[in-house]
Amino acid sequence: MMIVTLFVLGGALYPDAAASLFDTVSGGILSHFKWYYIAIVALMLVFCVVLACSRFGRLRLGSDDARPEYGLFSWFAMLFSAGMGIGLVFWSIAEPIYHFQSNPFIAEGMTPEAAEVAMRITFFHWGLHPWAIYVVVGLSLAYFSYRQNLPLTIRSALYPLIGRRIYGWMGHAADTLAVFGTVFGVATSLGLGVSQINTGLNHLFGMEVSTGNQLVLILVISAIATASVLSGIGRGVKWLSEINIWLTVAILLFLLVYGPTRYLLQSYVQGVGDYLAHVVPMSTWTDASKDGQWQSWWTVFYWAWWMSWSPFVGMFIARISKGRTIREFICGVLLVPTLLGMLWLTLFGGSALYIELTHTITNAAGEASAAIGQAGIVAAVTDNVTSALYATLTLLDDGAMGYAASVLATVLVALYFITSADSGTLVVTTILSMGNEHPPRSQRVLWGMAVAAVAAILMMAGGLKALQTAAIIAAFPFSAVIMVMMWGLFRALHQEMPVEEPVTVPVKLPPSS
After folding, report:
1. Tell me: the pLDDT tens digits for 414-464?
2. Radius of gyration over every alpha carbon of the chain, rounded to an integer in angstroms
3. Residue ranges covered by each domain of the chain
4. CATH 1.20.1740 assigned to 2-356+402-495
């Protein structure tokens, strides 16, 4: 708590100095360790695939006769709401449009080929890799807590390596890094979410887009999130997650009906195949020959953001996955949210790309000519990235249905904001109370407000750029903990299920004649 307090006070008193410090530290990390982020996240995905296909896949996260506490629908709803939520709404249109204009894999932007590559890159950033990070952390926590009866904290994953010393300074250090990463990872998402909500309210009701209004929104919505976390996972968090899924289905249906339906369905099928065909080379691409800034501020930012989120999402996933097998856990967490996320990205990003690709202008003589990139979405992204969502919905339908979709999108962002904040708060307090699944209510309130304060300071210290740099910085130390967790899980599984020596059956030779 002291570290967070010092950060909040320093950022409030010296916002310019805080912004400069963020830039310097994150710049050093990106300059020297970009390859490191790329390599370890690729390694995590390989680890998950190998583990799911191994003999360990049949082990249950709990006793051998344990069964899941939540049904599949509730489980997937909470997975998706906690793991992606705000960020997916924020970037689902903006990111494909950015890559549509330029990226390292195309010679010319604003073309049909550029649109395909734009969706491939976006799928890559929101596909298997982030969920592989969550699997590693969540599976480690669930295994050691529910099968080895250790506390539900990060330190328990280190038990096979350091034994009882997890209750000493080593364990405290691991948990502290997890709390640090969680607070800043969740705060990053809350900052993105409140920017999107402010733009939505401006679009709907004319509320001014300003830092002051965003700070008020952070305070109000964080208070609602704190009330939710006080009710626990089985009530507030679960109910809000299920509402999120139904609202998600509603807005996806709007896009499917009012958007270019055939193009979107074809793009989804084609995009998934294109992603699978390129996922291996993209996983290890480091832009070594040019070493440009594009990868640092896209791929590396995402990998760092996901790692800073991993203590929060991993522990939350662990808490709702007791009783499932390791294979079921990995396949469910890795595949289902990835496919749903790709569908979301196709319907939002694909609709925006189609509008820009097919836009035409008519001259005074009534003759139409192609005007790719001039429909208004590209301009919206350039002017204010948060306005891209509403520009797209308005272009799909500028009447009552388009307005209703804008309202729905804003409500959805707010609910994702709440579920991210309450889940993050619950995780932080669980870690700090040594794995107590029902931490004291006073701690939940205190840390709910602390996360809101960090988000507010990051908004004051530079907005989107400060949010990105904070995620990169917070993820760096915790990435080492994740690597140790992978090794600890590997050792523990081999200790529980050692390789059986083959039984040698003596061969009985026939008697010699």
Report:
1. 887 777 777 777 777 878 777 776 777 777 777 777 777 777 776 666 555
2. 24
3. 2-356+402-495
4. yes
